[in-house]
Amino acid sequence: MKVRILALLAIAxxxxxxxxxxxxxFTIALNLKPFNxxxxxxxxxxxxxxxxxxxxxxxxxDDSYTLTGASVYDIKVSTxxxxxxxxxxxxxxxxxxxxxxxxxxxxxxxxQSLLTSRLITRNQPGIxxxxxxxxxxxxxxxDVAGSVTTTPIPAGCSLTVAAYVQAYGHL
Length: 171
Hints:
- There is one protein chain.
- By secondary structure, the chain is an alpha+beta fold.
- It has three helices and ten strands, in the order αββββββαββαββ.
- The strands form two sheets. Strands 1, 2, 4, 7 and 10 form a five-stranded antiparallel sheet that branches. A five-stranded antiparallel sheet has the order 3-9-5-6-8.
- The protein is elongated.
């Protein structure tokens, strides 16, 4: 009899204990479309190239989610066009270095990943800035400045940078 009374008291007390896990929003992982920028390398004798694009993070996911966190899970650099010798450069996010790259142009004709290539070096403050901008919904300015060693440069050459971010949020 005592066991039944204790069980009933425990069951009756559960709603009074303040558990609200059923009402908590579910945290959902969101794979955002990549922060992607393609930079045309002007034909001619100037070996330097660069440019900046602005990306609104809200355009990369369903804006009905409220973001609570994010992480960068890869950065890729790739080139298009014939061999231009060695290419090297710096990628900045909101004026903070995100990564640097250095290697043969033809190596980058196959996209090089931060995860598997020694040709790309990350910079943690830039990673932090990208994450902060995504979570806060601030615009991301992806800026590239680089150079190649072979000139003249034919028309149709370009370099693409893609930063892959996973965000966390709830509806």
